[in-house]
Amino acid sequence: MAKRKNLIWQIPFLTLLIVGTVLIIAQQQNQPYRKIQGQVFGTLYHITYQSSDDLQGEIEAALKDVDNSLSPFNPNSIITKVNENQAVKVNKMFTDVFTIAQKVAAETGGAFDITVAPLVNLWGFGFKEGSTPDQPTIDSLKQYVGYEKVRLLGDGHVEKSHPNVMLDCSAVAKGYGSDVVAGVLQRHDVVNYMVEIGGEIVTRGVSEKRVPWRIGVNRPSDDPMQNSSEFETVLNVTDKAMATSGNYRNFYYKDGKKYAHTIDPKSGHPVQHSLLSATVLANDCATADAYATAFMVLGMEKAREVLERHPDLMVYFIYASDDGSYATWFSPSLRDKIIDQ
Q1: Which residue, 29, 39, 170, 308, is most buried by CB atoms nearer than 10 A?
Q2: What is the tens place of the pLDDT at every residue in 120-150?
Q3: Which of the two residues, 19 and 94, has the higher pLDDT score?
Q4: SS3 readout for the chain
């Protein structure tokens, strides 16, 4: 009898709980999906999120903070001051990215290396126009390249083995920027969003169509002027981060030869192997961004060796087969995220 009385008293509370939950869900569904876009880090960003609040101002302020910390093209950024050997104390954003970069560098045997900037610039993808450097010039710069030549001191200052060592976080900054924007949205309890900066993506929840976020992996094209919208595959990237690095996206021809934008820090030359595109899914976009670049340096076989040590990563590789046609390989754990087109 006592149990029955307790149950009777609990019924109104359970009813209120159910009604309250239904009302919250209905309120969330009625909130509009907002879209904003702009430019940052020399590329475009697109952000879609569901909220009754306009968060554009806060999002743009966060992106400006990332630019002021990590952009080598910003003359007043922290990384520019580090490269100019100014006595600057770095902030949390710089520290976050530096820590991730050095960790991925160690895990990939230096295939990912934020000190590769002098070689990138030499080959014409940074601040200078394209040219074909000779080997003595490459060798003269390699002495300043190596992730072990720089470290972050406990007092917040960067120590370099030589003043000519330069840092370039471009291969991780876009991914980190996507993470930062996602953090802004999460602080405002936004449960449905997609953040994309220059192709590096973070998603959560569902899209405006009330389905999981579906992101296409571009099909390679040898035409550098072509902005191909053809997809090799489409992935369900809900509640994950995704980054892609591809030699078919950014290269130039000189003397009939194709030079990729991915520079091997060890050889000092652009990589030339069969891997055309590396798409990485991870829990955060900065990590996905760094590993995507590292895998483009390593090539497929060495990249798969790294993946054996990191089951938390999922990849989709597009490569050139022996007959010149496109072929693909992906992590077994990614199979459930591939959407039939």
Answers
A1: 170
A2: 888 876 555 656 789 999 999 999 999 999 9
A3: 94
A4: CHHHHHHHHHHHHHHHHHHHHHHHHHHHHHCCEEEEEEEECCEEEEEEEECCCCCHHHHHHHHHHHHHHHCCCCCCCHHHHHHCCCCCCCCHHHHHHHHHHHHHHHHCCCCCCCCCHHHHHHCCCCCCCCCCCCHHHHHHHHCCCCHHHEEECCCCCEEECCCCCCCCCHHHHHHHHHHHHHHHHHHCCCCCEEEEECCEEEEECECCCCCECEEEEECCCCCCCCCCCCEEEEEECCCCEEEEEECCCCEEEECCEEEECCECCCCCCECCCCEEEEEEEECCHHHHHHHHHHHHHHCHHHHHHHHHHCCCCEEEEEEECCCCCEEEEECHHHHHHEECC
